[in-house]
Amino acid sequence: MSAVAAPTAALLPAPRQPADGDAVSVLPALYVPEASQWLSTTTGRVALEGYSWMQAVHWVAGSGLYKPRRHRSHGPRAFGPTTVRVAQELAQLYPCRPGIEYLVRRTGLTERTVQNHLQILRETGLLAYIAKGTRVSGGPAQASEFAQMIPTEFDVALGIRTVQRDEAAPAYTRAVSGMAEASRELMAMLAKKAARKVRRPRSKASSKATAKASGRGTEQGVVTAVSGEVRCTPMEVGTSASSTAGTTYLPPESKLASGVSKSPTTKESKAKAGGRRKPNTVGRRFQLARELTQELDWLRGCSVPRIAWVARGVADAGWTVTDVRGWLHLRGEAARVRRGSGLLAVLLAGAETVLDTLAKRADAVEQWRGAQEAARRHRIEQVRARTERYEGDWDAPTSRAVCREVEAAFAQVRDAATGGRQEPGDVVDDQDAGLELNEQELAELRVAAAGELMRGETTLIRSLDPQMALAVFGERLVARAYQLEAGSRSSLMTYGHR
Prior knowledge:
- The chain is 46% helix and 4% strand.
- The protein is mostly helical and 498 residues long.
- The protein starts with 7 loop residues before the first helix and ends in a 10-residue tail after the last helix.
């Protein structure tokens, strides 16, 4: 007889009439058909917590009322320690949705064995389906959800009285209201069994090694070591750690001569003061790659492992992202980038051999920062000039037709003020101004204006009045200049160049 199973006579007291009038009966058999293994069809009651459910599990294990071989010719021969081990894992789950792979990993059993013992727990009325797992083609398998049940036979055998407090609630929600006096001793014994944990039996080789190391006699028995693994559920509910009494260490007298003892389990932390360990070679590569993808616009979206492989030379040489920026300033960057990792590999080729000292890298960084400051001042001057040009209460219209009408109105006002006479400071006719320039000069102006438009600037075209600009630069360049001017006043668009 196993350590879990107890004699039937011990778990099923002989029928007698106790002093309080509660009768305890002996049951002939225990089996729940498949149709009654669902929560909606079960006759048992739901266990309120895992401890009381384990009491019922140990009662079924020791009663001998369930014989698997009566109903099938394969599988386990009895409700034994392995079934109790599976039940212990289920008792820690809430909600009880154990995947087969999870139970295989926790118990060390095979998949077929776990399925057999789950079937035993259902046939004894200890488990009831809430939802049965399914297998969808092309998708992951869904785990079954169970309700931990206490069979009706357990209540009848121990004389447990139940009451239904809510008449509208299902029958499986009934609660315990009392128990037969003759069964209190048996319930206390089941409580002790439920408090103990059944461990996986150790192999013979490990048992012999433990016996030799401890030096104890065989009459004391082999103590099964408790696994140091933290017992937790997939749903992150209750946890319980093993006892640490077995790790007590008493140092020898020679270690206490100086009056200071150090525990062998205490190790000096390799972490830095900030709580982080210093990265190794691979860690430095990935750290530099991550910073490069954040600092350089043309590396945005690139694979960090690929950039780490490309920049492995400078990373191993101790370069920082600032050093790389300084080298890229000296090396030169491309305006259009098709493949960021490939361009970086070309630009970093031989960088660690050229800037092989800290002084050379510092000088490159200073040049890069100087260029950044010069570019910043240039942008400030451009913004200031643009603000001075457009400051005032009136903004020029963006439509060319409206601009022509405005210019015509201004011309009428000037003619009315001067009496039709042309002043020395007046603007000459557009056609005459256009004829003053030869074809080569006009082509040079148009190339310069197109270059400014590519950089998002319209200074050259807007410096002339609309009619003169149309005569000199043409309708296409002037229209593009008006589009850029309209977009620059919108908060949703930004123009600039690198």
